[in-house]
Design a protein that fits this description.
It comes from Algibacter agarivorans. This is BLUF domain-containing protein. Pfam families: BLUF (PF04940). The chain has helices at about 15-35, 55-65, 100-115, 120-135; strands at about 1-10, 35-45, 45-55, 70-80, 95. Helix 3 packs antiparallel against helix 4 (about 120-135). The chain is built from four helices and five strands. The chain starts with a strand and ends with a helix. Strands 4-1-3-2-5 form a five-stranded mixed beta sheet, sandwiched between helices. It has a single domain, classed as Alpha-Beta Plaits (2-Layer Sandwich), CATH 3.30.70. The longest helix is centred in the first third of the chain and has 17 residues, at about 15-35. The protein has about 140 residues and is α+β, with helices and mostly antiparallel strands.
Length: about 140
């Protein structure tokens, strides 16, 4: 069974693009190694992340995130088992949105996902859209 966790958190400091890219590369390498897919979005000193994969690997990854000094006020929004990964086909399985083109690609992907009519996927889609559209 596949597990998904979606959380939001506050960043302790304003992350510059170079720091975000370094964090992204490290996260992507770790997630690929553990067969975790998902999405990581940083906006206005907040993170939203969706993790998908084998239950023990997702839980271990989330526990490492909880102890990461760059986060505070971590709030787990979704913590459940899923039949299929939502973001497996999105940008090689894991991405960070850091520009307008990436945001447009994400919107296109979310619109495509809506066609699957998966209730959990639609909840995740709504959360992601609300996060990226908030000021």
């Amino acid at each position: 069974m596949i597990k998904t966790i979606c959380y939001i958190s506050d960043s302790l400091e304003h992350e510059c693009l170079d720091k975000l890219k370094a964090m992204y590369l490290k996260a992507k390498a770790n997630n690929l190694k553990h067969n975790i897919t998902g999405i990581l979005i940083y906006k206005n000193q907040n993170f939203l992340q969706v993790l998908e994969g084998e239950e023990i690997k997702v839980d271990e990854t989330f526990n490492r995130i909880k102890s990461d000094s760059r986060h505070k006020n971590i709030f787990k929004v979704i913590n459940t088992s899923i039949d299929e990964r939502i973001f497996e086909d999105y940008n090689f399985g894991f991405t960070i949105i850091d520009n307008e083109r990436g945001l447009n690609n994400l919107h296109d992907y979310l619109n495509w996902l809506r066609g699957a009519e998966n209730e959990l996927a639609n909840k995740v889609i709504t959360m992601v859209e609300n996060f990226i559209e908030s000021k």
